[in-house]
Every structure is written in C-alpha cells, then in structure tokens.
C-alpha cells in the first residue's frame, strides 16, 4: 500500500460494502477502493453451508466480540459473532433469505418523513439484485447477483412440527417474502447448488476483480476517518487512516467515504473519529467534532428463546452425527449430491405467528432445528431432540455500542439490554406458551415430545421471563446504532439518504453510513437481505449526487 487517492472509499467488505463497491465501480471513470479488515473469503468452511460451525468463534472469520453482562439475561454475557472476512456476516450467517414485513418499511417512511422507504419503493431494490429460483414475478426478481434457492433437505420431525403449527392455527407458507410473513414452511436460502452464496461471490467476483478502476485492500483495518473543518465551519470527510499491519496509510476520497463496517464497527469508527456523544468522546480524550448522541445508541437485536424437546421415533442430527458411520454418511451425501446435513442452514423450518390473538401482524419468528445443544459451539445432546427457537420480532429494549478507549484495536463495549422492558418480558413469556401449544398438537404426538428446556414446571409470566433470560441467546441481528431519522429527531445520526449529520443542522460532506446500523427499527425477520436493499438504494443516491456534482463542476 501507499498513500493514494480514489473517488470513493468503501470501508468494510461485508454485505453492504461488497454491493456498494460493485455498483460504484461500474462507472469506469470512478476509482473505487474497498477496505476489509479481514482476509479474503478463501477459507473452505465459509463456502460449505454447515461451515458456520467452524467460522463463528474462529479468529480467521469472526471479530470474537462478547456482550457486557446483561441483567435481562440474569447476568450472562453472550458471544456476539460478526464476520471478519470478505462477505462479512454473509460469510458466516444462517443464509436465510428474509426481507421483513411491509409494515417495517411503512414505519421507516413515517419516522424519516421520506416515502422512498415505503414497501412499494424498497421492493424494486430487493428485486434488482435478486436471482429467485422460481423466476421473476411481481414480487421477485431473476438474473441478479443474489441467489435465492429452496433448501436441499427435509426432516420428518420438521414436517411434523409444520403440521402441528397448522393445527395450532398457523397457515402454511411457501414464501415468507411477500409482505406479510405469517405462516410456517421451510426457509429459502442464499445458496447456489448446495454452496453458501455470500456477498463476495455475488458482487465482487468475478465482476469487480476484473475492473481496472477497482482496488481491494484486505487485512487492512481503518483506525479513524479523516474529518476536516472547512472555511465556512462545516465538516467534510476526506478519507481514512488505515493500519495495514505495519504502518498507517492515508487513503483519500475526492467524492465520498461509504462506511459499511456494520452495526458494531460503524459506530465505533465514528466515535474514534470524533463523531458521537460528546461526554463519551471527552472521557476517552477524543476531540468532539460532531456531538451526535445517537451514535452507538438504539441497538436492537432479536433474542431467541431456545425451547428443547426430547422426542422418540424420528431421526435427528443429534443421533445421526453421534457415530463415525453417521458422520461418514453425511459427508458422502454432500460430496455426491451437495445435499443432506452439510448443506443445511442452521435453521431449516420457519414460522411466523402472533404472541396474542389481539395483534394485527405476526410478532414472533421461529427457527426450528432437528438438533439440540446446551449453547452454540457446545456438543450436540446424546438424545434425539428438536429445538424450537422463538424470537420477538419487534423488541422495545434498546442497547448501546460504545468505545472503551481511543485505540482502534480495542473492541467496543456491546450492551444489548435484552428483556429490559415489561413488554419484551411479556412477549417472551407468551412466546414460550405458543411453543408449548404447538408441541401439544396431534401431529407431533407420535414422537412423544417432552419439554426438556425450559421445563413444564415453569408457568407464570415471571417464571417464564426469568427462564427466558437463562436460555435465550442472540440470533445475530444487531441493527440501529447509527439510525436514520427526520431532522427533528435528536437521536438520528443519518438523514433519510444515509448522510451523516453534524449535530448543528447540517451534514458532514462526503460521508454516509450504509449498513444495518441505519435501520431506525429492526425488520421483522433476518436482517442480511434488508441490508443489501439499503445498500442498493444508497448506491443509486451516491451515483445521482455524483452526476449532479459533475454538472456543477462542468458549469
């Protein structure tokens, strides 16, 4: 590396950053630099679907974050995986293709005052990069970079759970991505022919790698943004300081810096650069350039409550993977057919329903698995079982991401504050009751399900909420830490076009945040593909603004 100048600098080669680099470098007249702190995605376990087991908790592919001890989890701290490799979290996540519900985007339009975030306006952005396995229709796209396929396996116990859910009043669904998620069925996944399909495959290779105006730096961690004060007192982001493992390199951007470091990395970098809550920055000896109290606030996540049921009479992964013969069979099936357990997403069957019949929209999501274990990364149980993990889609609890020091290499303090509201604790208790209601239906009776966790002895709201704190864990969907909002929202970090505010009624020129941190509220489902949609819209705005600037420069 050496000091060099580009039109655009994209920080973070993950879900959003890969798409941004692709779209911006399509203009051959613009030089684009993509900076990724991790390595290239050439680790074989990234591409085998079950390889998430070897990527999460692995410093080769994971930032290895942990949360602060959480009162809502009865003092527990959680492992908090974030992708540290090209493709980012799309290289280590559950591969589930999920857009959320139309009401999510109607709400975004309301709180930002910008109708471009309505469902009817975001749908074209989803479709633009989609390659749907059934082809294009009014709600799906085909021929785009982001491959969506059906799963390549099924399980008797999951089929029975789906039938039980229908007996409990949850309708059958073949597609959770049509505006209202309610229903039960197998998830669609971001895979291609049995391989994981991450954003690096989709948007970087071979497209970007063949463009002479595109440059990629890996193993390069941004230490801080370069923010300059202009003659009129306004602020402009002119580039970034990048640590390549040996020295600090200055990369200069003549047009824009696109911060795509994710809901943890982006607020951390803003704070390190003097943009954030003034009191926090001063406590770390950082000069306050823009007092923005919302930077690192508004953290939201989906907390999954993992109910485990022992069963009889049906194969599960617990038993299948317990012997050398079973493991060999699994490996052979994948090698020969690209199917079977090695091709499966962490969760295969999904269900969306309501915690109370008084609700208008589904507020619960189930990830149902033909396996069980004490905690992620622990060995599978020795007995046959399934896990019905349920999460509150629209939590009201809010957490924070704050730097601990002015050193870029130090991980920030992540405090999700799970189950910190009465509403979230009530939904947690009710969701466990819904799980029990489904498990008691006739379709599952022949498998004799027995609730192993949390245990039928716990019945009251207080008991169930406390037990939820004991057994719940993150489902890896942190969002909202640099949220967009209307001009009168003092906690909004971004405007509705993702431009960073300066705390004085203006914008910091040349700087946007393009990742899940921009979400004002979490989407009703898995968050990876909504992040791609945000990037798709942002890329169009950047190109529009560039074209306008060129007209002015020519004039």
Helix/sheet category: alpha+beta
Main sheet: strands, sense, barrel: 8 strands, mixed
What Rg do the Cα atoms give? 23 Å
Distance between the first and last residues' Cα: 36 Å
Tally of helical runs: 15
Q: Portion of residues in helices? A: 25-40%
Q: What proportion of the residues form beta strands (DSSP E)?
A: 15-25%
Mean pLDDT: 93
Overall 3D form: globular
Low-confidence stretches: none
How many β-strands, per DSSP?
26
Present the secondary structure layout:
Layout: E1 4-11, H1 15-25, E2 32-35, H2 44-47, H3 52-55, E3 65-66, E4 79-80, H4 102-112, H5 119-128, E5 130-132, E6 146-150, H6 156-167, E7 183-186, E8 188-189, E9 191-192, E10 195-196, H7 199-204, E11 214-217, E12 221-229, E13 235-243, E14 248-259, H8 262-272, E15 275-276, H9 278-283, E16 290-291, E17 303-310, H10 317-320, H11 324-337, E18 349-353, E19 364-369, E20 385-392, E21 400-402, E22 413-415, H12 422-439, H13 442-445, E23 450-453, H14 461-471, E24 472-474, E25 499-501, E26 507-513, H15 528-554
Parallel strand pairs: 1-2, 1-14, 2-11, 5-6, 14-26, 15-16
Antiparallel strand pairs: 3-4, 6-8, 7-18, 9-10, 12-13, 13-14, 17-20, 17-23, 17-24, 18-19, 19-20, 21-22, 25-26
Helix pairs in contact: 1-15, 5-15, 12-14
Short note summarizing the structure:
This protein has 15 helices and 26 strands. By secondary structure, the chain is α+β, with helices and mostly antiparallel strands.
Brief descriptors of the model:
555 residues; alpha+beta; eight-stranded mixed β-sheet; seven-stranded antiparallel β-sheet; 26 strands
């Amino acid at each position: 590396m050496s000091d060099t100048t580009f039109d655009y600098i994209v920080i973070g080669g993950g879900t959003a950053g890969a798409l941004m680099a692709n779209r911006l470098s399509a203009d051959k007249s613009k030089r684009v630099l993509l900076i990724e702190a991790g390595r290239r995605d050439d680790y074989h376990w990234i591409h085998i679907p079950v390889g998430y087991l070897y990527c999460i908790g692995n410093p080769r592919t994971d930032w290895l974050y942990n949360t602060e001890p959480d009162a809502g989890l009865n003092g527990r701290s959680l492992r908090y995986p974030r992708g540290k490799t090209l493709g980012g979290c799309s290289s280590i996540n559950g591969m589930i293709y999920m857009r959320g519900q139309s009401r999510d985007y109607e709400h975004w339009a309301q709180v930002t005052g910008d109708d471009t975030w309505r469902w009817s306006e975001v749908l074209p952005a989803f479709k633009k990069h989609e390659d749907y396995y059934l082809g294009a229709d009014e709600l799906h796209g085909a021929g785009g970079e982001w491959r969506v396929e059906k799963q390549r396996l099924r399980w008797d116990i999951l089929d029975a759970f789906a039938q039980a859910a229908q007996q409990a009043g949850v309708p059958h669904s073949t597609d959770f991505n049509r505006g209202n998620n309610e229903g039960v069925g197998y998830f669609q996944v971001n895979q291609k022919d049995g391989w994981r399909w991450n954003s690096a495959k989709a948007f970087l290779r071979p497209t970007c790698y063949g463009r002479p105006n595109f440059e990629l730096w890996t193993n390069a961690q941004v230490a801080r943004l370069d923010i300059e004060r202009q003659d009129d007192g306004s602020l402009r982001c002119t580039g970034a300081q990048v640590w390549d493992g040996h020295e600090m390199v200055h990369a200069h951007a003549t047009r824009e810096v696109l911060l795509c470091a994710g809901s943890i990395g982006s607020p951390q970098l803003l704070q390190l650069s003097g943009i954030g809550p003034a009191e926090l920055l001063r406590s770390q000896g950082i000069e306050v350039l823009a007092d923005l109290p919302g930077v690192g606030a508004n953290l939201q996540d989906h907390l999954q409550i993992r109910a485990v049921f022992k069963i009889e009479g049906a194969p599960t992964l617990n038993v299948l993977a317990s012997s050398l013969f079973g493991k060999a069979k699994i490996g052979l099936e994948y090698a020969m057919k690209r199917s079977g357990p090695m091709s499966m997403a962490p969760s295969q069957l999904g269900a969306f329903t309501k915690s109370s019949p008084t609700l208008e929209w589904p507020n619960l999501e189930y990830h149902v698995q033909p396996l069980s274990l004490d905690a992620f990364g622990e060995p599978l149980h020795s007995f046959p079982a399934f896990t019905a993990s349920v999460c509150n889609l629209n939590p009201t609890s809010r957490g924070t991401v704050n730097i601990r020091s002015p050193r870029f290499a130090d991980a920030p303090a992540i405090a999700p504050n799970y189950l910190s509201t009465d509403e979230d604790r009530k939904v947690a208790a009710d969701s466990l009751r819904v799980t029990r209601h489904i498990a008691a239906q006739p379709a599952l009776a022949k498998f004799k399900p027995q609730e192993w966790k949390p245990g039928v002895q716990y019945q009251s709201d207080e008991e169930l909420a406390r037990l939820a704190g004991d057994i719940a864990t993150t489902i890896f969907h942190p969002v909202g830490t640099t949220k967009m909002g209307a001009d009168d929202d003092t906690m909004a970090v971004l405007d509705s076009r993702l431009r960073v505010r300066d705390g004085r009624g203006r914008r910091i020129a040349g700087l946007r945040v393009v990742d899940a941190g921009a979400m004002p509220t979490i989407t009703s489902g898995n968050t990876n593909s909504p992040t791609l949609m945000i990037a798709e819209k942002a890329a169009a705005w950047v190109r529009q603004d560039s074209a306008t600037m060129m007209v002015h420069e020519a004039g």
